[in-house]
Design a protein that fits this description.
heterotrimer, A alpha+beta, B alpha/beta, C alpha+beta, B: alpha/beta, Elongation Factor Tu (Ef-tu), domain 3, Rossmann fold, 2 domains, 15 strands, globular, C: 2 domains, 4-stranded antiparallel beta sheet
């Protein structure tokens, strides 16, 4: 997989499945291959959110700073999509994203995609639906974990 | 139905509230069981509770039960001293019928203490590993220090080609593993197109949502098996407590296919 | 069919013959203001001249102006507790140096010998048949129940005076033993009490060889037990026919299982839950309810341990308790469980309905909840939101 170019990789990822060739070509032009070593941040809470990431290998922790250190809320692994704040005003990251393993990803220029989506509601709708998928999965995970199913009343 | 007498041989602490009790039959006759079955375990004078057997169905070692210390009876069981005599009735109920997965891929999805009833199934698979294709264990735990059977998890992964994915609700310092919900892993598990078998054990919400995720992956509901929990008092279908509409879960279950359970699980308080 | 006639003297001879055979004879008796079962040594122990008045939430004994012995409907309890007691020791054990050795109680201890039950009405006979299936007809059985049922001598009786709460006609269980469409427990003799211009007598159908022998023994003891004549048979038929017409209630059983399964989310459950007290009276008087709980009892030193089984009810909060809480937390869910089990899932489990139409759950409900009315409401509701499985 690491040998695939972005153009070869994108159509096989569920996030981009179903996009037509023109759209895929455009999305690919907004993408770059990136790599993070363990401990490096993909983004930090409060910073402008102008990208999102499709992880190809490795693991990223989504975390927030407490007064006494950090708390990891979620992890993301290969094929996971990280980041939706680029699509939601005020376009600032709400959490930190830190690589916890050697992590390769495709980074997408959110500002570029945002502008295209404004002018092309068809593509905008398709991308938004996929981002909603990611958000729904994360929300679902957060809600169910709130139930503390395995811990319980002990 | 009289309980058989078993003596506590030893107890292993699995995590802060969970222990595995090893029992030896007082009369020397081992208790044969199928993976997924349970017994009624009794502390004389205190009470009796249903506990899944967590040991090796093919082994000749002690009878193993992994017990979470959450009630008066389970507390008395978990802290029974070596040498103490406990009562055992059973084994009862349906098993996982793991062998039905031979020739295909098997996915086991466990949540919390739900790993314990799946352990005999995993041990059975390990014993005849070559008869199965890809085998994956997706295991959700509360925190890294709640993770059960750590040695087993490593053995299964390293020696028996089982893909073991552990995911926790909340991380702890030093944890670099996955954090999230076990159902998220179902979307990624390597799965052949046919002859798939999924075994799911955990809290009912987790089992329901896992089954839905497995169906979304194209697994036939009849090939998804869940282990249901209800108030089992007699273990033999006579006391009525464990009914789920027409099912006596102690007799017809606890392991049942999702196609049978789905309409019943869809109703609150059924 | 071998049918004979007993007078009240003949009935006494029958009781004597049963006692001579070593049976502990039980029959209807007035107890605590209601008809229950008690020991019968003489015909005079039977409730001569007593009748009853039943309605939803209402039961009164009343005096009749005739000498009839069986002229009332279902009593406060069926024959169920005779074979399936409300409390029973499963085993006892003593702690010693070698641990605990549980042993079952001696089945003979305290027993009065095999039981002969006199005056089991048709609905209750069907209920015993249902309990036989539940407790003996499956993979695991109840050994103590089997022991009690074994050898039981049954003298059934045609129900001549159904109550306003009765609907055995709808359930195919009565009013005449053996004439129903539902399976019932076997009986040795079935009698129909007749009082007409030819006198007060019992038209007795001999159903087993043993039953015939007992009557023969009564004859040898000096009783007159003549064969029934056509006018006797006609009179007995007439009693049964009039009783069938006198059923106070009806239950439309067509498609009942499907109706209840489809009604899981019906608002009818919410409504009945506003009245139901979840007191469990219905399950305590039901002749087929079989749910039990266990209790572990120790003496103060902990040396003696006893495990008791007691009747339980699906209306209790503990009944469905699992770690974390009750599965059926609401009264709505508990009433739904009871009615759905009784009338629907029972069919899937045992191949028969769990209701015999005795009407006890209606009579003894302090809130006067009427099962037949609730089913009618579900039918009217058409299965609630029609989203059943």
């Amino acid at each position: 997989m690491t040998r695939l170019t972005i153009e070869q990789y994108l159509p096989h990822h569920p996030f981009f499945a179903g996009l037509d060739e023109d759209d895929l070509a455009f999305v690919a032009r907004c993408a770059t291959l990136v790599h993070f070593h363990p401990g490096e941040y993909l983004f930090r809470e409060g910073e402008p959110a102008d990208a999102f990431y499709v992880l190809r290998t490795g693991r990223v922790a989504l975390e927030t700073r407490l007064g006494t250190g950090s708390q990891v809320l979620d992890t993301a692994d290969a094929d996971d999509v990280v980041g939706w704040s680029w699509l939601v005003p005020p376009y600032r990251w709400t959490f930190d994203a830190r690589a916890v393993a050697e992590t390769s990803a495709v980074a997408f220029d959110g500002a570029c995609l945002r502008e295209r989506c404004e002018n092309d509601p068809g593509l905008g709708y398709l991308l938004l639906r996929r981002v909603v998928d990611v958000m729904a999965t994360r929300l679902h995970s957060a809600r169910v974990r709130l139930l503390d199913l395995y811990g319980g009343q002990s | 139905m009289l309980p058989r007498r078993f003596r506590v041989a030893s107890t292993r602490h699995d995590n802060h509230d969970t222990l595995t009790v090893h029992l030896e039959p007082c009369d020397g006759a081992p208790l044969a069981f199928a993976a997924g079955q349970f017994t009624m375990l009794q502390v004389f004078g205190v009470g009796e509770v249903p506990i899944s057997i967590s040991g090796d169905p093919r082994g000749s070692g002690p009878l193993q039960h992994t017990i979470r210390d959450v009630g008066s009876v389970s507390h008395a069981l978990a802290f029974a001293a070596p040498g103490e005599v406990l009562g055992v009735r059973g084994p009862f109920g349906t098993g996982w019928d793991v062998a039905d997965g031979k020739g295909g891929d098997v996915v086991l999805v466990a949540g919390g203490i739900g790993l314990a009833p799946l352990r005999p199934a995993l041990l059975e698979i390990c014993a005849e590993r070559d008869d199965y294709q890809r085998v994956s264990l997706l295991y959700g735990a509360r925190t890294p220090s709640d993770v059960l059977f750590g040695d087993d998890l490593r053995t299964w992964a390293e020696r028996h080609r089982i893909t073991v994915e552990v995911i926790v609700d909340r991380g702890e310092a030093g944890w670099t593993g996955r954090i999230g919900l076990v159902t998220q892993l179902i979307g990624k598990v390597a799965f052949g197109a046919d002859r798939r078998l999924a075994l799911v054990c955990g809290p009912e919400v987790m089992m329901r949502q896992s089954a839905v995720a497995l169906v979304a992956r194209g697994v036939d509901p009849s090939r998804i098996r869940l282990s249901m929990e209800r108030n089992m008092k007699c273990g033999i279908g006579l006391c009525g407590h464990c009914q789920l509409r027409e099912l006596f879960l102690c007799l017809d279950g606890p392991v049942l296919a999702f196609d049978r359970l789905e309409p019943l699980m869809a109703r609150a308080e059924l | 069919m071998d049918t004979r006639i007993l007078t009240t003297d003949g009935l006494q001879a029958l009781v004597d013959a049963l006692q001579t055979r070593g049976f502990h004879v039980l029959g209807p008796a007035v107890r605590d203001g209601a008809i229950g079962f008690g020991p019968v040594r003489e015909v005079a122990d039977l409730p001569a001249g007593w009748g009853d008045e039943q309605e939803a939430g209402h039961y009164r004994l009343r005096r009749r102006d005739d000498p009839l012995l069986f002229a009332y409907a279902a009593g406060a309890q069926s024959a169920k507790p005779l074979f399936f007691p409300a409390q029973e020791v499963l085993w006892r054990a003593r702690h010693d140096a070698n641990g605990v050795h549980p042993t079952p109680p001696d089945p003979e201890a305290g027993a009065d010998g095999p039981v002969a039950v006199l005056g089991v009405r048709s609905c209750d006979l069907a209920a015993v048949g249902i309990q036989d299936e539940v407790l003996l007809g499956r993979r695991y059985g109840d050994a103590a129940y089997a022991l009690r049922r074994e050898g039981t001598f049954v003298v059934a009786v045609t129900c001549s005076h159904p109550a306003a709460t009765c609907f055995c006609g709808s359930m195919g269980t009565g009013p005449r033993p053996g004439a129903g469409t539902a399976p019932a427990a076997p009986y040795d003799l079935a009698m129909t009490e007749v009082l007409d211009e030819h006198g007060h007598r019992f038209v007795v159908e001999v159903a087993t060889e043993r039953g015939g022998h007992v009557l023969d023994e009564a004859v040898r003891a000096g009783a007159a037990v003549p064969a029934a004549g056509p006018e006797d048979l006609a009179a007995a038929d007439d009693v049964a026919a009039r009783a069938a017409q006198a059923m106070g209630r009806q239950l439309d059983t067509s498609g009942l299982k499907e109706l209840l399964y489809a009604s899981a989310e019906s608002p009818v459950w919410d409504e009945v839950a506003t009245r139901c007290l979840a007191c469990a009276n219905c399950t305590q008087v039901c002749p087929t309810c079989f749910c039990t709980d266990v209790r572990d009892v120790t003496d103060l030193t902990g040396a003696l341990v006893e495990r008791d089984r007691v009747w339980d009810s699906c209306f209790g909060a503990e009944y469905s308790y699992i770690h974390g809480g009750s599965v059926r937390a609401s009264t709505r869910a508990r009433y739904r469980q009871w009615l759905t089990h009784k009338l629907a899932s029972w069919e899937d489990q045992f191949g028969m309905s769990g209701c015999v139409g005795c009407g006890r759950c209606i009579t003894w409900c302090p809130a006067a909840i009427d099962l037949t009315a609730e089913v009618a409401a579900l039918r009217h509701d058409g299965g609630g939101r029609r989203d059943g499985p």
